Batch of 2 targets.
Target 1
Amino acid sequence: MVDRSQLMRGTLEGCIVKIISQEETYGYEIVSKLQDYGFEEVKEGTTYPILVRLERKNTISSVYKESPLGPKRKYYFLTDKGKEFLREFELVWNDVKNSVDRIMRGE
Amino acid sequence: MFKNEVTLLEQENKKQFEGLREEDKQLINDITKGMTIFKVNSYDAQVIRRDLIGMAQEQNLRNGNLEDSLGDDIKGFTNELIKNSGGPCVIEIILKFLSRLSGYFFIWFLCSSIFFFGKLTWESTPVIYPFYIGVVVITFIIEGVLTPIFTTEKGFRKHLQGILGFLIFASWSLILYLSRNNPNEVEVNGGIIIVTSGLLYLATKYLNSTNIHRLARDKKNYIEDLRY
């Protein structure tokens, strides 16, 4: 059997950064969006350590803001370093995707 | 003088923690106990604790609990967090140890001089010094090394930290009990020890606060954000 979670692991970081680049967002919303895109098994237990790592590497930063539902929420946003990371990720991902596609098509 | 980003975050976290469900409180405590100063510096640990509280609050709004967010593998989650955090700070570990050592010595010798001897100097076996230092080292190791290993375990394994801690403490006490028959009692100058350990305690507390300011300096300080 193909280990989907193993396959997903390397790409999740780039996907999270892409979601954050679209608008300031919080942990629960990031997970909901990933699930909407088909990463149904993803939970905050998977994304939160990645967010901690991205924040430590200064790829993203965060701020607490009022929430309409109750307590303040931590909103993540992209830093300049994060924008650079995203550009690089898109290039590398396209390279990898093209290579795998060519192998799968037997070209 | 001793207020710093960690103490402020602790206050805020305590306030937010009160409103959580019992099972979420337990889970957060288990995870944060695993992140001792040997693994994660205390500023990062408090920021992570605040985030976990936030996750639990978010789930409570949707009638869920924190475990729904984190999944079943709490040990794996805690290890991932430790791996991805800023790591420990050696200066903090040293200062915390010296603070614990001086604090214990201050209280032990103060209590001894007031309640047991009623004076500032007394005769005693020299074994008391290695015994007191050993007790501090053992409690420090139990909290810093054994607790993180077993805190996120389930069932019997969760209680192994207490059992191992007790065995280490009992062995240490036994070794010193067997070597107590030293005929040469020494004069213990409690006054000097009380003053020295008290001053050392204050100095390490101050230096720890300065170190926390340094750890939090280049990171987002959430205190103002979090104030309502």
Note: Chain B has two domains: 5-89+216-226, 90-207.
Target 2
Amino acid sequence: MKIDSGDTAWVLASAALVMLMTPALGFFYGGLVRRKNVLSTIMHSFFILCLISVQWVLWGYSLAFGPDKFHLIGGLEWIGLNNVGFTPNADYAPTIPHQAYMVFQMMFAVITPALISGAFAERQRFKAFVLFSLLWATFVYDPIAHWVWGAGGWLHNLGALDFAGGTVVHISSGVSALVAALVLGRRLGFGKEKVEPHDATMTVLGACLLWFGWFGFNAGSAVAAGSLATSAFVVTNTATAMAALTWMTVSWWHKRQPSVLGAAAGAVAGLVAITPASGYVNVMGSIVIGFGAGVVCYAAIQLRERIHVDDALDVWAVHGIGGTWGALATGLFATVAINSSAANGLFYGNPKQVLIQLAAIGAAWGWAAVGTFVILKVVNLFVPLRVQEEEELLGLDISQHGEPAYAL
Amino acid sequence: MDATTVIAIISCAIVLCGWLVLPHSAAKTVKPLVVSEERKPVSVSA
């Protein structure tokens, strides 16, 4: 196999773009919390970038992409990047060094547990967060990544389509966020006092950086610099814009004002929804996916508020529901005219693809929910999940890290 | 024109036409910030 310099350059640049998404997520979330918790919220993302970078090279990549065991998990043959060198791997990316593919995938493994941190913002003990993130990456993310993307994974063999992580990244993190919010319970004063975002400009800037980095997430998932990457780039931008426009319209109709934070959240919902479909749908399909994301994710937030679940930064509504819609929509709008190695969806004559997508959605929901619940209960045996009441009132920046965010 | 294109056009029409009929009301819950005194210039010594 011959290494292609253009493909390698694109995948390495994409890995860097995806890396930027994790601190961007920290700023997106950081602006949404109260000023006494902004530093701890940003720290969740920054710390996970460090933690999972090491976990991934030690055992994470091997579990997710290593030689298949029973169609469920990768083996330990690639532990410590043993046998993962510079010769391309034909199963995953035949024109780039294997380590380039590994580091690109590392950034996906990094951002996924960071997404969950929005659910338990402003109340989780840092030590519990560290243990949870490490266990979750190992026992929830790595298996699901193997099922969907690993050579020999059972959902991969079934024909499930997930170009860049709608199921692997967004459903898994969104559903886990819901479970974490339920297990940890509501913040003090939730529903009684209004919790306002402390810096909306920080959130909008974070959303813009996420949008920028997402081009690496989706177009980079072509693992080649060519027409498929170009198509993924175009549909990613289109769906994102359409979702932001739609969310703004819905919130305008509902709240009588076009919300700036709503536009930012809508853009993220669109990015999430187009992720699984980005290598399979055309531009018209991406417009419908963006429109659907704006409507269903906004509705999911209203539902979450109505049932009084304190998923602090709406990870379930945006990532869980947005990812589910995107995975389902892939089964509706996928076309081999875009990606000849994939399959058509319902609107192009293949209704069976919808059933396959539903199977993948159900498996990801189930594994993420059960796995997260068990991990949280195990962690709670050793370290209390929540901070004490007075620590929560003081704020996590001071109580957990001993540093204020602002000296103003 | 395939079904996906038709749905996409309808989606765009809903969003874009919606703006023409949506009402707009000024917020009444947020108090405007009142600056009580002018900020004094900060002297910077070399």
Note: The mean pLDDT of chain B is 74.
